[in-house]
């Protein structure tokens, strides 16, 4: 994997190792995938100011996200089905993040459970919450995250109903996979993945199975979300969630200045500018295009983070220049994980760190905390 120099290299290696239905679960957006593509493309439109003859020694990427020290302001985003990209995927990725000194966020829709991840880590990780209609289950999930010592709750706001992703429907995505000829063929052509998978017992949604009452067809994400997720979730609900949790709270899925302003009164510690990686409202603006406006609206009163479209350390730098205090990578770490388990996630983080560091130096900066819009061209 050391010959993989870019996130795109890791993505191609993952494509060859992971069964199609799971690889495409990561590599997909809603409907036309226009917003999914725009998240990446809009980063390329931003031009950096090259500066010369500036002292480049003693550079630092260290920073803080919600008061926690990070070796670089890049967190692992919460992603569903992670343990299907590689056996025990969430546990491996959490370990890689911990060793690297960046936050790991565990999704509600993970394969490994909160307790599984806790059992293989020694520093607190973050937990992402979906709110189901079954309030007892949600309260219990919050309590389990607390008991595991999670240091932040990331509440996702943009998935009360599921956006349609054509690839998942065509692939018949499920966890565990079904044993139809099509699915068997997809797995048979990925023997290393199968061998690893045979060595674990974690093949379905570990936070839910055995914890939620009357769970019907959990294997189909679309039917499960439409049966179980709460479509009436409102700003008022944030109160009881915040009270029950009692710790750091991050709101994920803000893409509009008005919603950003409303989040100021929610008591949250940070918001994540996100369109769910283009997986929900196709046709929405890209995350990076909305970031400067949202920072202008609330950035002096609340920490603003960005998720969506980051494929390099250069993209991280651009988001920081626009005022994000932290960024998240979802697909880049999934590709690393699929390509090579824990070592692959470490490789993802190394690639991003190197690109961020070199780009910062060539922009004439030595401290990631000093990046600003001044490092970007305004009119090119
Ligand atoms: C779940 O969060 C998904 O985007 O699939």
What can you see in these coordinates?
The protein has 15 helices and 10 strands. It is α/β, with parallel strands linked by helices and 380 residues long. Helix 1 runs antiparallel to helix 15, helix 4 runs parallel beside helix 15 and helix 14 packs across helix 15. The chain binds glyoxylic acid (GLV). The site of glyoxylic acid has 5 residues, from loops.
Estimate the helix proportion, in percent: 40-55%
Strand order of the largest sheet: 3-10-9-8-7-6-5-4
Overall, the morphology is globular
| Structural class assignment | alpha/beta
Number of strands: 10
The number of helical segments is: 15
| Terminal CA distance | 36 Å
**What is the residue-averaged pLDDT?**
95
What is the H/E string? HHHEEEHEHEHEHHHHHEHEHEHEH
Biggest beta sheet summary: 8 strands, parallel
Distinct ligands = glyoxylic acid
State Rg: 20 Å
The fraction of residues in strands falls at 5-15%
The parts where pLDDT drops under 50 for at least 5 residues are: none
Query: What would you call the quaternary organization?
Result: single chain
Concise overview:
The chain has 380 residues and is α/β, with parallel strands linked by helices.
């Amino acid at each position: 994997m050391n010959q993989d120099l870019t996130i795109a290299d890791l993505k191609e290696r993952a494509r060859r190792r992971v069964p199609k239905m799971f690889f495409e679960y990561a590599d997909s957006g809603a409907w036309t995938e226009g917003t999914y593509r725009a998240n990446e493309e809009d980063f390329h439109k931003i031009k950096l100011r090259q500066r010369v003859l500036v002292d480049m020694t003693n550079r630092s990427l260290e920073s803080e996200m919600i008061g926690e020290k990070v070796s670089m302001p890049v967190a692992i985003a919460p992603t569903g089905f992670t343990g299907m990209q590689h056996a025990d995927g969430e546990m491996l990725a959490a370990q890689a993040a911990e060793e690297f000194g960046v936050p790991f966020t565990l999704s509600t829709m993970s394969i490994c459970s909160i307790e599984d991840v806790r059992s293989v880590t020694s520093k607190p990780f973050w937990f992402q919450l979906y709110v189901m209609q079954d309030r007892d289950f949600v309260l219990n999930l919050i309590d389990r995250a607390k008991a595991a010592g999670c240091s932040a709750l990331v509440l996702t706001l943009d998935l009360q109903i599921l956006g349609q992703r054509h690839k998942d429907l065509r692939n018949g995505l499920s966890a565990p996979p079904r044993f139809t000829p099509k699915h068997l063929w997809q797995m048979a052509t990925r023997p290393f993945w199968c061998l690893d998978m045979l060595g674990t017992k974690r093949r379905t949604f570990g936070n839910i199975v055995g914890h939620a009452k009357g769970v019907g067809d959990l294997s189909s994400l679309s039917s499960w979300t439409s049966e179980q997720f709460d479509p009436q979730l409102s700003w008022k609900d944030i109160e009881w969630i915040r009270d029950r949790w009692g710790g750091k709270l991050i709101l994920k899925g803000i893409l509009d200045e008005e919603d950003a302003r409303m989040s100021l009164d929610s008591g949250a510690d940070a918001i994540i500018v996100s369109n769910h990686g283009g997986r929900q409202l196709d046709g929405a603006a890209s995350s990076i295009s909305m970031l400067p406006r949202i920072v202008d609206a609330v950035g002096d009163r609340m920490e603003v983070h960005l998720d969506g479209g980051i494929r390099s350390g250069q993209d991280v730098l651009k988001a920081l220049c626009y005022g994000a205090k932290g960024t998240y990578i979802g697909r880049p770490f999934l590709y690393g994980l699929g390509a090579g388990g824990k070592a692959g996630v470490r490789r993802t983080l190394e690639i991003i760190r190197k690109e961020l560091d070199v780009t910062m130096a060539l922009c004439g900066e030595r401290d990631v905390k000093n990046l600003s819009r001044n490092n970007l061209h305004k009119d090119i």
